[in-house]
Design brief:
3 domains, Rossmann fold, alpha/beta, NAD(P)-bd_dom_sf, 25% helix, NADP, Dihydrodipicolinate Reductase, domain 2, AGPR_AS, 23% strand
């Protein structure tokens, strides 16, 4: 049985008393005050949620973002969290900003019990996920945030990730989860390969333009920049403060592992092989991602045509926003949210255009899109638990 406590709030009018069943007002002109006496439910028993969630790899950045986003989800409740190196610890001890969450302690994957789990977010490192997912109960819905099931060609996976694919049969089942572009496929999937952060920021603006034959399939140049959290939480010398601060670092030049993923999506949109020039940069900021994309317009096509196509492609989408003409997207304006902001600008070189796309690499570029996908897979509105406004300043 729930209990109640009472308190009052004073305003400069009359006096309101609330006892849980009615509210009455008593004017007290001499006092010139209004008191509100409120019944506050102090029942600490939490209602059970319909969908029981397991988070594999909860001690990493994407895992902690899943926990943060699920804190206000009305239907998903976490019943299992794994973290091999942090096994036995609470989520609040690993991420103090989550100390208020009443969740089970983390366990190692080998000790995980999936009997009380309906769906899984797999936030494990690349190269470790295939065998783990292959061993999971077949009835689970799974969203994998690693790269292990994104590439449909397993030989391409081996080329770019340096090891053989360990679950080729499961790869045939995996659905690539760029939600806005593959919504129906995601809804009916059991296993969704959540897109990478760079591929999300690049494909969202480019795929509609390619499908409409508004840009040439050649000479696509992508200059992308990411916050340091995109490199994960592991201790690496290259990610030390003194290595990152007060500078910009280009990395993975011509060989970044997101290249084949981007080319796969663009080539499917074009029904023709597309090769891109892609250079990522590490920026001295915690989170955020910007892709500046240089394209050649098809003969007779104008900037207005590109803008109009993006507008009609995304005008009914919750999380993809085409800004007003001339407004430059900024990473500050998506921080902590599941939004992608974009715009298109004329280049000084005739016939070319510049597209700018920004996301939060940990939300729309990872955990937010993963939740968006699982919402669809479980039959809930995509925006459930994701209506966080960007955090600024």
């Amino acid at each position: 049985m729930s209990t109640a406590t009472f308190g009052s709030i004073c305003f400069d009018t009359g006096c309101f008393w609330k006892d849980g069943s009615n509210i009455s007002k008593v004017n007290r002109p001499k006092e010139g005050k209004m008191f509100v006496k409120c019944a506050v439910n102090t029942n600490t028993q939490k209602p059970k949620k319909e969908v029981r969630i397991g988070v594999l790899g909860a001690s990493g950045y994407t895992g902690s973002e899943i926990v943060r986003l699920l804190a206000n989800h009305p239907h998903f409740g976490i019943t299992l969290m794994t973290a091999d190196k942090k096994a036995g610890q609470s989520i609040g001890s690993v991420f103090p900003h989550l100390v208020t969450q009443d969740l089970p302690d983390m366990v190692s994957v080998k000790d995980a019990n999936f009997s009380d789990v309906d769906a899984v977010f797999c936030c494990l490192p690349h190269g470790t996920t295939q065998e783990i997912i292959k061993a999971l109960p077949k009835g689970l819905k799974i969203v994998d945030l690693s790269a292990d099931f994104r590439l449909q060609d397993i030989s391409e996976y081996e080329e770019w990730y340096g090891q053989a694919h360990r679950a080729p049969d499961l790869q045939k089942e995996a659905v690539y989860g760029l939600t806005e572009l593959l919504r129906e496929e995601v809804k009916s999937a059991r296993l969704v390969a959540n897109p990478g952060c760079y591929p999300t920021s690049v494909q969202l603006p480019l795929v509609p333009l390619i499908k409409a034959n508004l840009i040439e399939f050649r000479n696509i140049i992508i200059d992308a920049k990411s916050g340091v959290s995109g490199a994960g939480r592991g201790a690496k010398e290259a990610n030390l403060y003194t290595e990152i601060s007060e500078g910009i670092y280009s990395y993975g030049i011509t060989r970044h592992r997101h290249v084949p993923e981007i080319e796969q999506g663009l080539s499917q949109a074009a029904n023709s092989k597309i090769t891109i020039s892609f250079t990522p940069h590490l920026m001295p900021m915690n989170r955020g991602m910007q892709s500046t994309i240089y394209v050649e317009m098809a003969p007779g096509v104008t900037i207005d045509d590109l803008y109009h196509q993006l507008k009609i492609s995304y005008e009914d989408e919750e999380f993809v926003v085409l800004l007003e003409r001339g407004v430059v997207p900024r990473t500050h304006n998506v921080r902590g949210s599941n939004y992608c902001l974009m715009n298109v600008f004329p280049d000084r070189i005739p016939g070319r255009a510049i597209i700018v796309s920004v996301i939060d690499n940990l939300v729309k570029g990872a955990s937010g899109q993963a939740l968006q996908n699982l919402n669809g897979m479980m039959g809930y509105p995509e925006n459930t638990g994701l209506l966080y406004l960007p955090l600024f300043p």
